[in-house]
Amino acid sequence: MITVLTQSSSASIALTITAAGSGMIEMYSAGAMAIGANIGTTSTAAFAAVGATSAAKRAAAAQVLFNLVTAVIALLILPVLFYLIHQISDALELDADPAFSLALFHTLFNFMGILLMYPFIGQLAHWLEKRFRSREETESEPLYLDKNIARTPALAINALLNELVALQKRLLKLFQAAVYPGHHDIKRFQQQVTVIRSLSGHISRFIVELETAALSDETTAQLATMMRVEGYLLDCSQASDTLASLWINREALKEPELEAQLKSYLTQIVDYMQQSANLSVGDTPMTQEALQHEKDRIKYHLIMAGTLHHIEVAQMSVAVDCLQEAWHIAKTWHKASTRLNTLSAVLIPPSSGNEGE
Prior knowledge:
This protein is mainly alpha-helical. It folds into two domains: about 1-135, no CATH class; about 135-345, Methane Monooxygenase Hydroxylase, Chain G, domain 1 (Up-down Bundle). The chain has helices spanning about 1-5, 10-20, 25-40, 40-50, 55-75, 80-90, 100-115, 120-130, 135-140, 145-150, 155-180, 185-210, 215-250, 255-280, 290-305, 315-345. Helix 14 packs antiparallel against helix 15. The N and C termini lie far apart (about 85 Å).
């Protein structure tokens, strides 16, 4: 309790040593108090972990577990520890006064705790990683990939396809959050960018770690295509991050008509992305050529407005950059979607109708 109140185990140990040295308490009681002081130090970590990050909470939990386990074992073998202290003092021909014995006891039982917990560090870390998880950490875990699936090529390919489709849907939401008014929760947006990058890394590592020697040429080619799709989607996420930064921080154009055209173009990009993700191969109601033509037309009017001083040059420059980023995303997204649609057509055959009699 003293340690908790003072937030200092040193103060508790100093009081305990003083009491033991003056004969006010026995050595066994002093040892128990030293163990209690060690447990009390966990309060500092526990208080600091309140409202802290997931990593800080896991670190605090690790300290609490270490100190509690060490304390329980030390209490169970308290006579043995003092016997060892007596033997060490005799072997080194030291005067085993209470202060020295208690200091040696404190060092000995902490060292014992390290020896006891060291073999289980890996298991403890793995257990803690599953606790105190933030929303971002949970979302960063793949939905379909695991080591067991990796052992079966057919299952691994389908799992990768499902993971890429899920990543594609998440990226579409990211782009919508970047360009639609009212969706600019910057903290949440940046969390999603981090999540997408993490998922992309999981996918690429999963592909690389597959045993390609046992795969057919067709499956190897499919994996190569999936690696390209992962790269395209990662590129889109980075471009969306750049676009969001430009879009949020820019000033609205002084010409309302140009401002409306710019916003309308971004909406067309969203529609195009949705269509590309959901259509079969070769079905393209909205073409890249139409998007490029619209982009070039708006860009021309922006440059003319800037040249004629109808809008500020800085505004024109940011608006053109937004157009270019959106167009880059649309092109890259199309590459990813086309390949995903092709893979889906091969790996997920259409459901057959009623078979002929």
